[in-house]
Amino acid sequence: MTKRTIIITGGAGFIGSHVVRLFVNKYPEYRIINLDKLTYAGNLANLKDIEDKPNYRFVKMDICDFEGVYQLMQEEHVDGIIHLAAESHVDRSIKDPFTFAQTNVMGTLSMLQAAKLYWESLTTPYVMQDVDRLPSSLAHVIPTEERGSVSMGKELGMTSTPCRFYHISTDEVYGALEMTHPQGIEPPFTTKASSGEHHLAYGEKFFTEDLKYQPHSPYSAAKASSDHFVRAFHDTYGMPTVVTNCSNNYGPYQFPEKLIPLFINNIRHRKPLPVYGKGENVRDWLFVEDHARAIDLIFHEGKVAETYNIGGFNEWKNIDIIHVLIKTVDRLLGRPEGADEDLITYVTDRAGHDMRYAIDSTKLQKELGWEPSLQFEEGIEKTVRWYLDNQEWMDNVTSGDYQKYYDDMYANR
Ligand SMILES: NC(=O)c1ccc[n+]([C@@H]2O[C@H](COP(=O)([O-])OP(=O)(O)OC[C@H]3O[C@@H](n4cnc5c(N)ncnc54)[C@H](O)[C@@H]3O)[C@@H](O)[C@H]2O)c1
Question: Per the structure, how many domains does the chain have?
């Protein structure tokens, strides 16, 4: 069995926690290091079920802390990075673009540069050159005795393990697609994730991997910039990188500022459901565990320097999703069908709101054989049940109590 040591950044967040859980359980021979700053979006309670596993370590760290990240890579002999840590909420990026540039761009650059210097130090005698390019305040992170040392990789016995930097990104970097068919048309593709009852496309075009980037929000602009840096590290330094761009995810453990958990909770408590504009914007939805399975496959079998789009051909107008959520929550709570339709409240549209996202994931399906496992109806039922059954998790998040979990669990460790 191959032993690997992998840093997963942002592992306490929504998607990251599913990726950490999958890797820790599926690969007991791997060492999985969850590197997370625990911003408001990071919640270690998402990982309660695996936190005591021997192949798991949590490290509270900012990805922008270049020195800390570099030292951790040395200490742990890291050979793989799955980078999910980011500021991820578009509305927050509109209010505070600086934080998004800092975390998503500078943080990614810090991860890249640390990995580059560490991996080069394993295989080349010329680390010195790179040290000289560092700001003088950081030059000490590579101890003098290690600079220029020949073949550190052999001493560490790590040269045979292929290193990999896998960057997780979003379909939002491609910009918005036009809604050429507001009534919907027969879609050209189907996957297991496509809704069985409602399967429509709202335009003829889809996001493919070769499309020009046209980000519109500060969030997507920062993600686009980080994607460019990742590719530049491959093209300039030969770093073994992979980038994936995924559509909207839904499922358990999502912070309830995002549409699906927010609305499930509001319906439960009969609070208004604020719908942007007319609710016509279209998003393409994928169950989060199917994204995590795609990440596992691509991390191991994806081609270096490639980009893969991940999505399930499952387009929905926001307002239609909201009707499904109301119907499902009301049914599961034993309320009369449609009882909570009057909670829908139309509010001023989001600035620069992208009209339609729709991913073409044909490349991933054909080249690596990935298929989503859950049809949308099953995924939504599972998701609504999870939030209704885990009210304590939701209450801790909405009250802010989840932020004490780190102190309770780790203060004396
Ligand atoms: N949610 C989606 O629908 C979606 C879709 C496609 C791609 N993505 C991408 O997937 C990744 C994860 O998204 P998510 O929805 O799970 O996000 P999230 O907001 O739920 O989690 C982000 C995590 O990153 C951590 N983090 C933030 N800043 C950090 C920093 N400076 N240092 C270390 N950790 C930091 C947070 O504490 C949190 O645990 C992001 O890169 C996002 O762009 C998300």
Answer: 1
